[in-house]
């Protein structure tokens, strides 16, 4: 469904003042610096899709022989050129004004950096841009594909009870949360459940889809869902570790709260295209209460869990929170 406000969505066109805030995000900056340092080998050729202020191209230029930095916004083009000229090895970066959805470098590259990331892989065009790049790159250069930074994204959904009262004003609206702080307004009613594991170098669907039944672990009023996106910026195969970065959590209010008790299950269904506006999540969302399981079924599931991993174990292993 086309949103009448779609032309106002951020998409690829992020204004300069947003990028100033990104530069001030120490967790994001250090994560990408470490990941790029790991991925880019001395003498490498690098492409950045959606370069912004050029900071990630700067990180790459400390080792790379050449960096192609693609940006569509004229204001950011000017800012990136000015800033890179003031930084070491900035002369290795070629700033190119182009649409990342259609640009290909003049030669094969070793690493592709693309940070068009928003929680839920909504709004920004990470999924379609990388998918388009891979198809066109294969056609022009063949394999192998470059390394991608980030390498993967893990998505999860969590049922919560959220306080939507603000100085006496009740406003059940979409809320953003810093993933690195305790959120006192939110009470988790169940564990986060992974609904999507996406590796950017592998083929993937353009659809983000959830069909989960989540166990309620606390009594409460289920009035919102928390959407979580954890990005694996780089995977270190030597140490068997990852460099991670969470985008902000998003809290989506439900149109009608549901009273739940410990032991209940809730069915959560939604489906939207990567890069779609925020309302695409809400428009497709279906949440339904499932009554407590009978003891016989609980015993059967307990026996089954001894031979197969449960969704909650998958969440724990993925380290989503």
What is the topology?
Blueprint: H1 16-23, H2 26-39, E1 45-49, H3 55-61, E2 66-71, H4 74-84, E3 93-97, E4 111-114, H5 126-141, E5 147-149, E6 152-162, E7 165-166, E8 169-170, E9 175-177, E10 186-188, E11 193-199, E12 207-215, E13 220-236, E14 241-246, E15 249-260, E16 265-273, H6 279-284, E17 286-290, H7 295-305, H8 311-318
Parallel strand pairs: 1-2, 1-4, 2-3, 4-5
Antiparallel strand pairs: 6-10, 6-11, 6-13, 7-8, 9-15, 12-16, 13-14, 13-15, 16-17
Give a short summary of the structure:
The chain is α+β, with helices and mostly antiparallel strands. 25% of the residues lie in helices and 34% in strands. The chain has helices at residues 16-23, 26-39, 55-61, 74-84, 126-141, 279-284, 295-305, 311-318, and strands at 45-49, 66-71, 93-97, 111-114, 147-149, 152-162, 165-166, 169-170, 175-177, 186-188, 193-199, 207-215, 220-236, 241-246, 249-260, 265-273, 286-290.
What are the main properties of this structure?
34% strand; elongated; alpha+beta
Would you write up a description of this structure?
The chain has 321 residues and is α+β, with helices and mostly antiparallel strands. It is 25% helix and 34% strand. It has helices at 16-23, 26-39, 55-61, 74-84, 126-141, 279-284, 295-305, 311-318; strands spanning 45-49, 66-71, 93-97, 111-114, 147-149, 152-162, 165-166, 169-170, 175-177, 186-188, 193-199, 207-215, 220-236, 241-246, 249-260, 265-273, 286-290.
Number of helices: 8
Task: Give unreliable regions as ranges.
Answer: 1-10, 309-315
What's the gyration radius in Å? 21 Å
Helix content: 25-40%
SS strand fraction:
25-35%
């Amino acid at each position: 469904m086309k949103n009448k406000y779609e032309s106002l969505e951020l998409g690829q066109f992020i204004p300069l003042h947003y990028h100033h805030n990104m530069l001030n995000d120490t967790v994001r900056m250090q994560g990408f610096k470490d990941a790029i340092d790991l991925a880019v080998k001395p003498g490498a050729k690098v492409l950045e899709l959606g370069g912004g202020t050029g900071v990630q191209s700067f990180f790459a230029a400390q080792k790379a022989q050449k960096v192609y930095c693609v940006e569509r916004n004229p204001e950011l083009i000017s800012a990136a050129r000015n800033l890179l000229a003031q930084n070491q090895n900035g002369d290795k970066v070629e700033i190119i004004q182009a649409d990342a959805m259609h640009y290909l470098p003049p030669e094969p590259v070793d690493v592709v950096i693309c940070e068009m990331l928003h929680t839920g892989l909504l709004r920004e065009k990470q999924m379609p841009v990388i998918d388009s790049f891979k198809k066109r790159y294969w056609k022009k250069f063949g394999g192998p594909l470059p390394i991608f930074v980030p390498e993967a994204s893990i998505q999860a959904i969590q049922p919560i009870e959220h306080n939507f009262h603000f100085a006496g004003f009740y406003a059940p609206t979409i809320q953003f949360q810093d993933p690195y702080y305790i959120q006192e307004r939110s009470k988790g009613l169940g564990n986060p459940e992974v609904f999507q594991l996406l590796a950017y170098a592998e083929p993937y669907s353009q659809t983000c889809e959830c069909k989960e039944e989540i166990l309620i672990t606390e009594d409460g009023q289920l009035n919102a869902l928390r959407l979580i996106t954890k990005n694996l910026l780089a995977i270190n195969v030597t140490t068997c570790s990852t460099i991670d970065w969470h985008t902000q959590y998003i809290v989506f209010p439900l149109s009608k709260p549901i009273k739940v008790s410990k032991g209940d299950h809730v069915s959560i269904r939604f489906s939207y295209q990567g890069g779609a506006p925020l309302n695409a999540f809400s428009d497709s969302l279906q949440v339904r209460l499932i009554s407590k399981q009978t003891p016989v079924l609980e015993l059967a599931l307990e026996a089954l869990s001894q031979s197969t991993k449960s969704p909650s174990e998958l969440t724990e292993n993925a380290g989503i929170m």
